[in-house]
Amino acid sequence: GKLVTVKYLRLDRYHHRFPQALTCNTPLKPSNTHMNSMSHLRLRTGLANSQVGS
């Protein structure tokens, strides 16, 4: 139950702020085996809905 505030960055501003991101090619991994953080991402991107019919 902690409040988190986020701010959207346009891609050009993100790369200006984090220039090393331009050359990164390793995907992010969940920080634990419960995949708590990844389940929220899956729900927000619509991947959960696309897997319902599978």
From TrEMBL:
It comes from the Eukaryota. Residues 28-54 are annotated as: Disordered. Residues 28-39 have a biased composition (Polar residues). This is Inner nuclear membrane protein Man1-like protein. It comes from Equus caballus.
